[in-house]
User: Which sequence fits this backbone?
């Protein structure tokens, strides 16, 4: 059994924003009880795992208040070796205060914030329909003051005309350690979206490659370049075993899903947090094996198969309704793999 586990704990569906592309429909919906939190903390406790990462997620996870996270730290430390534990927080950033930032710094949380560049306010609006970018930037300021290192995540969208140069500059100026870009996916996207995204990501990649002053790690570019150097995969998007139980997502009620992006709607629920990790993983493995065979058929002849493995399963799922479909952004990622392979070969050649 894999000795690493990432638990994506969706602690609440409540949120103070109403983003136009949010997949949640019940923003006043359930929050995790302290009993369920204890069960989340106990997942894998009997297995003596080498690394257990809790990714606190939502809705907006900071809507739970700091006392919830004080309880989470106590519960997880009582179930796992402190040296094996990592805590991540994925937040919209608007509820970060100086007190929250100090708490995150003191407890060594890795923080990810969602911010969509210059067009942020057109889609990430508050309950009272106001833009939220000023509140996110204020939160980022508090993180900087407290010395918290953070990454930012931007969702690129169809029919949302952005000036890529302004977007690139905006994201770099936030002072984040990493910038990750992801395409919006799902049935609401027009058929032309994969090719629009392909143009956007190729343009961003060229900007990043030619920007010798950029200290920010852009994703997925850095992960892909690393995979050419190490032969392995980092992150979950291009990992062969992503559905195999290394990542599990728990919703506020304690229902367990294969990953944080595969929750709700028609996504398969694989069990309950009250169950044993080995049992949950054995169910997850069935989905992994089925996908692995199907992706070998679709992608086996691709030059980048062993680095990509058909891409993110959730991107294919929300178009096809099944977990056996490669990502609809195949052409875009094929371009990125090809360009970064050439760049890493050139660097290798220079060092030889
Ligand atoms: S911040 Fe996240 S949970 Fe809240 S509305 Fe936006 S996408 Fe949904
Ligand atoms: S680039 Fe496309 S064809 Fe190649 S492995 Fe990835 S999804 Fe499959």
Assistant:
């Amino acid at each position: 059994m894999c000795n690493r586990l990432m638990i994506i704990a969706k602690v609440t569906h409540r949120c103070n924003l109403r983003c136009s592309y949010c997949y949640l429909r019940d923003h006043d919906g359930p929050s995790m009880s302290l009993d369920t939190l204890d069960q989340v903390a106990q997942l894998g406790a009997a297995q003596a795992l080498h690394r257990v990462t809790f990714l606190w997620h939502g809705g907006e996870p900071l809507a739970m208040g700091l006392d919830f996270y004080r309880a989470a730290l106590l519960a997880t430390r009582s179930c796992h070796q402190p040296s094996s534990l990592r805590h991540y927080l994925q937040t919209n950033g608007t509820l970060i205060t100086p007190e929250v930032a100090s708490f995150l710094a003191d407890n060594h949380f890795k923080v990810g914030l969602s911010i969509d560049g210059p067009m942020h306010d057109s889609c990430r609006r508050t309950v009272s329909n106001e833009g939220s970018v000023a509140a996110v930037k204020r939160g980022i300021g508090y993180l900087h003051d407290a010395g918290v290192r953070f990454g930012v995540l931007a969702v690129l969208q169809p029919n949302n005309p952005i000036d890529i140069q302004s977007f690139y500059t905006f994201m770099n100026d936030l002072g984040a350690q990493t910038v990750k870009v992801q395409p919006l996916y799902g049935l609401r996207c027009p058929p032309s979206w994969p090719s629009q995204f392909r143009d956007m990501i190729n343009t961003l990649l060229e900007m990043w490659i030619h920007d010798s002053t950029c200290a920010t790690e852009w994703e997925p570019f850095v992960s892909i370049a690393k995979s050419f150097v190490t032969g392995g995969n980092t992150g979950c998007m291009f990992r062969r075993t992503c559905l195999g139980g290394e990542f599990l997502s728990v919703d506020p009620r304690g229902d367990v899903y294969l990953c944080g992006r595969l929750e709700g709607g028609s996504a398969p629920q694989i069990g309950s947090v009250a169950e044993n990790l080995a049992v949950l993983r054995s169910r997850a493995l069935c989905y992994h094996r089925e996908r692995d065979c199907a992706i070998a058929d679709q992608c086996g002849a691709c030059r980048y198969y062993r680095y990509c493995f058909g891409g993110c399963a959730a991107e294919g799922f929300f178009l096809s309704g099944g977990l056996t479909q490669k990502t609809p952004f195949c052409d875009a990622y094929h371009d990125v793999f090809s360009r970064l392979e050439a760049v890493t070969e050139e660097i290798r050649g220079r060092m030889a």
Notes: The pocket of iron/sulfur cluster (ligand 1) is lined by residues 15, 17-19, 22, 24, 58-60, 92, 124 (CB under 6 Å). The two ends are 39 Å apart (CA to CA).
